[in-house]
Amino acid sequence: VDHDGKTIEYTCSFLFCCSGYYDYDQGYSPEFPGVADFKGTVVHPQHWPEDLDYTGKNVVVIGSGATAVTLIPSLVNGGVGHVTMLQRSPTYIGSLPLEDPIALRTNKYLPKNLAHFVNRWKQIGYSTGQYQVARNFPSLFKKVLRRMAERRLPEGFDYDKHFSPRYNPWDERVCLAPNGDLFKAIRSGKAGVVTDTIETFTETGIKLTSGEELQADIIVTATGLNIQLFGGMSLSVDGTAVDLTDTVAYKGIMLSGVPNFAFAFGYTNSSWTLKVGLLCEHFCRLLKHMDDNGFDAVQPEFTGSQTRPLLDFAAGYVQRSIDEIPRQGVDGPWQMTMNYTLDAETL
User: Fold this and answer.
1) Ranges of H-type helices in the chain
2) DSSP per position, 187-213
3) Average of per-residue pLDDT across 310-326
4) How far apart are CA 68 and CA 83, in angstroms?
5) What's the Cα-to-Cα distance from 31 to each of 28, 36, 99, 201, rounded to whole Å?
């Protein structure tokens, strides 16, 4: 529907949906008691005002996910008075150089194409390897993260309270602080971490369950995202609505029972586009196969009996939507793997 309320109709013989997996219009914003009493400014990162001036201000960022971890060092570098990361529970946060030292050397000494090949496969190997170490040897992975952080945090900082979650690494996302910038921001004194729950907003900030009060001029609700597949489209086949919860993902690119429809869904534990690249190549080969053989339609048919959630991920935004999205199978091309080597073989 356009701005004048007129319905616009598009037709195609194959639809490939590359819309990401979350709602770009509205992030997740839980209802906080007393928020109407707060006299300052409340901002959700997905609706950041262009003219927001935080210079010299006290800022509280609610949340400790990727948005908060990225935002806090930027606020410090931008001249904030002080910023506090308020989290209900800790998140695993690692530290890596902003510039890859190996890539700098390969780009300097190797021919361009060879350097690209080495850098790409080094990064694939690293991301796959660290995930496997985290899942199979969580204690070792935790020790490495602790060592990374404690080298950059102020002496005596309570790492266990603020950066040691109760769950294992990659049960939820592991965040990355380039050059350890979040830890350095804390060491500078311009940023701090509070692990507690919110009792209520007040006129001047937030009162916590412990009784402590955080003073704030600006409160940023970095509380997560809402999953929204296919840009919010509803699907129907021959006039019959498709219930996404009844569909099963095939090779992570199509849905059972839905003809001539594909979608791009990347990795949640590595580069999103690493998986999407494989999917796009596979999609092009599928179209060529159809052209070469005179096929007009392709439709996966799930014949198995067992399914499981599409995403094996304990993050809040996944768990809030797990009963509204497609499923995956337990073996073969119906699995939604997060392993590049396996996907390269399947796709």
Assistant:
1) 66-77, 101-109, 112-136, 138-150, 159-163, 181-188, 272-293, 316-319, 340-346
2) HHTSEEEEE--EEEE-SSEEEETTS-E
3) 81
4) 11
5) 10, 11, 40, 11
Look-up: residue for tokens 């009162």? 207
pLDDT at 280: 96
Q: Tell me what pLDDT residue 322 has.
A: 83
Could you give the percent of the chain with pLDDT greater than 70? 100
Where does residue 2 rank: exposed (0-12), middle (13-18), buried (19+ CB within 10 A)? exposed
pLDDT band, very low/low/confident/very high, at 319 (cuts 50, 70, 90): confident
47: burial class by Cβ within 10 Å (0-12, 13-18, 19+)? exposed
Q: In angstroms, rounded to a whole number, what is the distance separating the alpha carbons of residues 111 and 116?
A: 9
Where do we find the tokens 């380039």?
178
Query: Which amino acid belongs to residue 88?
Result: R
Cα separation of 108 and 128, whole Å? 26
Q: ∠ CA(119), CA(335), CA(313), 5° rounding?
A: 75
φ, ψ dihedrals at 23, nearest 5°: -80, 110
The pLDDT of 292-303, averaged and rounded, is: 96
Task: Tell me the angle at which helices 112-136 and 138-150 cross, rounded to the nearest 10 degrees.
Answer: 110
